[in-house]
Amino acid sequence: MWNQIVADAGTDTFYCAGVTFDLTSSVSGGNVNGNYSYQWTTPDNQNLTDANPEISNATSLDSGVYSLVVSDIDGCSSLPSEVSVSINRAISVSAGNDTSYCYGSTIHLSSSISGGTAPYNYIWINPNTDTVALGVIHNSTLDDNGDYTLSVTDAVGCSASDVSNITVLNPISIVTSPDTNYCYGDEIDFRSDASGGSNGVYSYSW
Predict the structure, then answer these.
(1) Whose CA is closest to 126, among 139, 117, 135?
(2) Distance CA 49, CA 68 (A)
(3) How far is CA 197 from the centre of its chain?
(4) pTM to 2 decimals?
(5) How far apart are CA 125 and CA 127, in angstroms?
(6) Which 3-state string (H, E, C) describes 64-132?
(7) Are strands 81-87 and 13-15 parallel, antiparallel or unpaired?
(8) Adjacent-strand bridge partners of 92
(9) pLDDT in tens, 92-122
(10) For the segment 130-166, what is each residue's pLDDT rounded down to a tens digit?
(11) For the stretch 37-67, what's the b/e string if a residue is b when 16 or more beta carbons lie within 10 angstroms of its beta carbon?
């Protein structure tokens, strides 16, 4: 006479969305001279037969109660053992569109965050891996060109990130006609040559 089979599905657990995790089992009793068979029932009533099945790319749909029943080679079975798994909602992060700015302008990096568990902690990292305080760049220069990474961590420690590219345009350079003396009644032709900026069509105001 063998002892009653006792299955243990582990302790209740929390995971961030997108991770891969294993359900863990332990068993005692029953006919120890052969292998056990395992039957996990998932929250959506799927059956898994590995002792420690892997759940990949977890979503909130994987949250719920997992039930484990273990049988020995004699066909004797344990009572169900249950474990509760909670999956945090996925964090959605947007660092905004790729954008061009005029040389010397103030750049306000924009963000949009949803999902996960509020409140959020976020930091902006510039192309030189330095933190951008409050997501604001004053007196922008060509050194500010590049990818800016927004990294977000929610209240339970789950994280996500997104990248936005910033282009600071070359400063506009203007060359005008040299100082010139004209006779009274002469036609005066003002000339200028502009470069830099977006190198497109310039508009002029004298």
Answers:
(1) 135
(2) 10
(3) 33
(4) 0.74
(5) 7
(6) EEEEEEEECCCCCECCCEEEEEEECCCEEEECCCCEEECCCCCEECCCEEEECCCCCEEEEECCCCCEC
(7) parallel
(8) 114
(9) 999 999 999 999 999 999 999 999 999 999 9
(10) 999 989 999 999 999 999 999 999 999 999 999 999 9
(11) ebbbbbeeeeebeebebebeebeeebbeebb
What six digits make up the tokens of 98? 């790729």
Convert 43-66 into a string of H (helix), E (strand) and C (coil): CCCCEECCCCCEECCCCHHHCEEE
* Cβ pair 169, 138 in contact under 8 A: no
Helix spans in 111-200 (H): none
Give the tokens for residue 162.
Answer: 């997104």
Helices and strands of the chain, counted as H and E runs: 0, 19
Is residue 10 within 8 Å of 28, Cβ to Cβ? no
Contact status, residue 48 vs residue 70, Cβ threshold 8 Å:
no
Sign of CA dihedral 58, 60, 62, 65: positive
